[in-house]
TrEMBL record, chain A:
It comes from Candidatus Caldatribacterium saccharofermentans. It holds the Pfam family ABC_tran. This is Branched-chain amino acid ABC transporter ATP-binding protein/permease. Gene3D superfamilies: P-loop containing nucleotide triphosphate hydrolases. InterPro entries: AAA+_ATPase, ABC_transp_permease, ABC_transporter-like_ATP-bd, BCA_ABC_TP_C, LivM-like, P-loop_NTPase.
TrEMBL record, chain B:
The keyword Transmembrane helix applies. It comes from the Bacteria. InterPro entries: ABC_transp_permease, BCAA_transport_permease. GO terms for biological process: D-alanine transmembrane transport; L-alanine transport; L-isoleucine import across plasma membrane. One of its GO terms (cellular component) is plasma membrane. This is Branched-chain amino acid ABC transporter permease. The chain crosses the membrane at residues 12-30, 42-61, 67-89, 101-124, 144-170, 199-222, 242-267, 279-298. GO terms for molecular function: L-isoleucine transmembrane transporter activity; L-leucine transmembrane transporter activity; L-phenylalanine transmembrane transporter activity; L-valine transmembrane transporter activity. It is found in: Cell membrane. Belongs to the binding-protein-dependent transport system permease family. LivHM subfamily. It is a multi-pass membrane protein. Pfam families: BPD_transp_2.
Length: 616, 305
């Protein structure tokens, strides 16, 4: 049964739909009107379903535009064909081999280009798809047999049992589809699936929340390619012939359409999309040359009326049961769990005495953008359990300095030390695991995920469960997931957003979005919280509430570094203020020292109006 | 040396076709952030329209005014008809989908591409059509010891002329500035009083129109056309667009010509190169994207974090 903390509320009927559909799939070949021809159609629905699922990992979950997916399909098919016809390796054994070769190829080829942005990645994948096809056609060293393809691929067999009739192939492919769908569903609901979705929503935010974006993107491609390789093997075995004609760009385009038609990230949607794409031309077969015409038209029409797909993915709804909210009292902030857990146990950091050792040291950091010096030899020391504020006019370089500290930029000179260790230039997600979390000036949430999921994402970097535990739902993984949910629920409640837990982040009002981002940052379990203009956009009362909240965090042992423009906040809670102007430090000290410092007044705070005629 | 020169000229010729098609791609992408997969098929449409014009109408014109006017008529006809087609495509397939985001637009574009290709096939038939020989001038020109067909030269100069006009419009006129502004930040452009609908109309009329022109010239140059030829050209043109810097109009032209030259020289000088030339094109594309993603003439646009 497992401790399913996320309850997806389904209607009575809805729960039966998947069972009915799988039931239909299981008995399909034995239905009265179904002859071998239609069993074959059923086979192809399954095959394209598998391909659609493989592309969905890349396109649906992570949001990477892959228009060259047929390349991996082709490599799987050709690996099987070549190794079977030349070395007589059994086809069934080649199933995992094809998957491995395809995924290895994907890893090698995508590594240098995985950082590319959306449309550019799209073009690269188109190029890769075409290059693979061209290589196959040109028959290097005679292994692919050129445009005529390879014939005589054997049938898969376990011992004496050979898969060769249409019905046998039908069940074979659908068994694989069922298995793959199961694995993908488990992944979808795990830490890994959530990380993928976060990357799709906002890469920069994902990286800043502790997700190793590059690794997860490559993982998606590798997995997607492996699954496509599987499909290639099955295709080769069924057709007994492979030729480059089956792997044109149109094939990749078709897969793309299947995923979008069904609904990005929706597994049942993808299978439905595959069914439509395969069955549509069959139904229109009598129109012969016009059927593709109608198909093109159907694609356009679907995008006009159902751009989200026919069975769009629904986000998980977090129910009330499983998390004992009833036991909550408003005054005593206790964490959410069945049974009582005290505050201290849930604190991210043990409160300790005021430490003389600096938590964060920025030493002589300089960053140039071409001729512009954004940050000039900046020194900053942040002591633990205190509030340090960085202030200065707009464009001074404050956010840039934060970006350097959190690893988004590499400084040209200087060092950043955290707890005595050099973290200069460390990748942002690693900086998070060290214990620094941040928010953004322009709020970067994951807009299509629920508030709960947003905060949950913060916990990702503290998790260890990989793919296998996620799919198998090992006790370790279940414990980890439960812990994550509890911590996320705790922080969501702390910032006063518990009632919004199932609301999509983008629907929240601005002020609450700021708190959501802070909750997400806190969920990473930081020692240092870096906030970029947290009070901007908040009114007086909200600002006071924020200040109160930050004081609470201080008591719990979290150190705070702020960029602020609101002098009430700066004066109200800072222990130390550093002033930046045009990339350089112009003053530093306690709030009052800085407030009365002449240079600061001149550059930032402003002097009172002088009467005309007097000297300045 | 003479062979090299000939190849070079061929390369520039082929490149100018790519450039004209690339211009359309680049403009649409720059302004709409949409990879118009149907663009290659609009190119094909243009070449078929030119063919139809020549077969039916040109005979009439040629009798009265000579071969060249027939050619010009075909080009003009394709240009105008394609402009209309482009606008129609935008209205029908893209406009209703803008609010849904980038990915549905890609599917719409793919759908339109499939639709157009099959519509062309349905109207004109699946077999190759040949541009009528008698209606295309075959005079030659002697230049630097080479014998260049006059048609080729005219096509080349026409392409260059059109590109120059496009460059001038986009870079030197006020409307061109409006186009560039819309490409950079559409929302802001509307807030500044730029009629974005006019810009979109312009882009979707002119882009395909240029493609259509290139289609006719391509038909006259290679003489045979087929409904599926748009795909290859579309992809090459897209490569050219990236090479030059996406959204950058002079870049698309430079990219196109460069691509044509590199491709032709590769096919000519590398043994067995012809079969691999498409592969090389894509390899170049990928390398450019890795090492200089903003293209040859593109600018680095940093994302403010």
């Amino acid at each position: 049964m497992g401790m399913e903390l996320s309850c997806v509320r389904k209607g009575r009927f809805q729960q039966f739909v998947p069972i009915l559909l799988w039931g239909f799939v299981s008995v399909f070949p034995f239905l009265p009107f179904v002859n071998d021809y239609w069993v074959d159609v059923g086979f192809f629905v399954g095959l394209y379903g598998l391909l659609g699922l493989s592309l969905n990992v890349v396109l649906g979950e992570v949001g990477l535009f892959d228009l060259g997916h047929a390349a991996f399909y082709a490599i799987g098919a050709y690996t099987t064909a070549i190794l079977n016809t030349t070395l007589n390796i059994p086809v069934l054994l080649l199933l995992p081999v094809s998957a491995l070769v395809a995924s290895g190829f994907a890893y090698l080829v995508m590594s240098p280009v995985i950082h590319l942005r959306g449309d550019y990645l799209c073009i690269v994948t188109i190029g890769i798809g075409e290059i693979v096809r061209i290589i196959i056609v040109n028959n290097p060293w005679g292994i692919t047999n050129g445009p005529n393809g390879i014939t005589g691929v054997g049938f898969p067999a376990f011992g004496p049992f050979v898969i060769q009739t249409p019905t046998q192939f039908y069940y074979f492919v659908w068994a694989v589809v069922a298995l793959v769908a199961f694995v993908l569903l488990r992944l979808q609901r795990s830490r890994i699936g959530r990380a993928w979705n976060a990357i799709r929503e906002d890469e920069v935010a994902a990286e800043a929340t502790g997700i190793d974006v590059r690794a997860y993107k490559l993982l998606a491609f590798t997995l997607g390619a492996a699954l496509a390789g599987l499909a290639g093997n099955i295709y080769a075995a069924k057709m007994a012939v492979v030729s480059p004609q089956s792997f044109l760009f149109m094939e990749s385009a078709l897969l793309f359409c299947i995923v979008l038609l069904g609904g990005l990230g929706s597994l049942p949607g993808v299978l439905l999309g595959a069914a439509l794409v395969v069955v549509f031309p069959e139904v229109f077969r009598r129109f012969a040359s016009f059927r593709l015409l109608f198909f093109g038209l159907a694609l356009m029409v679907t995008m006009i009326f159902r751009p989200g797909g026919l069975l769009p993915r629904k986000r998980e709804i977090l129910g009330l049961d499983g998390l004992d909210v009833q036991g909550f009292s408003a005054e005593k902030v206790s964490p959410v769990r069945m049974g009582q857990v005290s505050l201290e146990e849930r604190s991210p950091v043990q409160p300790r005495e005021l430490d003389p050792c600096p938590l964060l040291e920025v030493q002589g950091v300089t960053l140039r953008f071409g001729g512009l010096v954004a940050v000039n030899q900046y020194d900053l020391v942040v002591y633990p359990k205190r509030v340090t504020s960085l202030i200065g006019p707009n464009g001074a370089g404050k956010t840039t300095l934060f970006n350097i500290i959190t690893g988004i930029y590499h400084p040209n000179e200087g060092k950043v030390l955290f707890k005595g260790e050099d973290i200069t230039g460390l990748k942002p997600h690693l900086v998070v695991t060290r214990g620094i979390a941040r928010t953004f000036q322009n709020i970067r949430l994951f807009p299509s995920l629920t508030c709960f999921e947003n905060v949950l994402m913060g916990r990702h970097c503290r998790g260890k469960a990989g793919i296998v535990p996620a799919v198998l739902r090992t006790p370790f993984q279940l414990r980890e997931e439960r812990e994550f949910m509890e911590i996320a629920a705790y922080w969501l409640y702390r910032v006063g957003l518990w009632e919004y837990r199932n609301e999509l982040a983008r629907n929240l009002p601005y002020g609450r979005q700021k708190y959501l981002e802070i909750a997400r940052a806190l969920a990473t379990g930081p020692e240092l919280l870096i906030l970029d203009e947290p009070s901007s956009g908040l009114n007086e009362r909200e600002t006071e509430e924020l200040m109160g909240f930050l004081q609470e965090l201080l008591q719990e042992g979290i150190t705070i570094l702020l960029i602020e423009h609101d002098m009430n906040v700066v004066m109200g809670i800072s222990d130390w203020v550093s002033v930046m102007d045009m990339g350089s430090k112009i003053a530093e000290g306690s709030p009052w020292e800085v407030y009365n410092h002449p240079r600061v007044i001149e550059a930032y705070l402003g002097k009172e109006e002088e009467w005309v005629g007097s000297t300045s | 040396m003479q062979v090299f020169f000939e190849q070079l000229v061929n390369g520039v010729m082929v490149g100018s076709f790519y450039a004209l098609v690339a211009l359309g791609y680049s403009m649409v992408y720059g302004v709409m952030k949409l990879i118009n997969f149907a663009h290659g098929d609009l190119f094909t449409l243009g070449s078929y329209l030119g063919y139809t014009f020549l077969v039916w109408g040109a005979a009439w014109i040629t009798e009265r005014a000579g071969l060249w006017w027939g050619v010009l008529g075909a080009i003009l006809f394709a240009f105008l008809a394609n402009a209309g087609a482009g606008v129609l495509v935008e209205r029908m397939a893209y406009r209703p989908v803008y609010r849904a985001g980038r990915l549905p637009l890609v599917v719409s574009a793919l759908g339109m591409s499939i639709f157009l290709q099959n519509a062309i096939m349905a109207i004109w038939g699946p077999r190759f059509q040949v541009y009528p020989g008698g209606l295309v001038p075959t005079a030659s020109l002697r230049f630097l010891g080479l014998s260049l067909p006059l048609l080729k030269v005219v096509i080349l100069f026409l392409s260059l002329g059109v590109m120059f006009v496009m460059y001038w419009i986009v870079e030197k006129t006020e409307f061109g500035a409006a186009v560039r502004a819309t490409a950079l930040d559409r929302e802001m452009a509307t807030l500044l009083g730029i009629d974005v609908r006019k810009v979109i109309l312009f882009v979707f009329a002119l882009g395909p129109a240029l493609g259509g022109m290139a289609g006719v010239m391509n038909g006259m140059y290679y003489r045979s056309i087929q409904f599926s030829m748009g795909w290859n050209y579309g992809l090459k043109a897209f490569t050219a667009t990236i090479l030059g810097g996406i959204g950058n109009i002079p870049g698309a032209m430079v990219g196109g010509v460069l691509l044509g030259v590199v491709e032709t020289l590769l096919a000519g000088y590398v043994p067995g190169g012809g079969a691999w030339k498409d592969g090389f094109t894509f390899l170049i594309l990928i390398l450019v994207l890795i090492f200089r993603p903003t293209g040859i003439l593109g600018e680095k646009v940093a994302e403010k974090v």
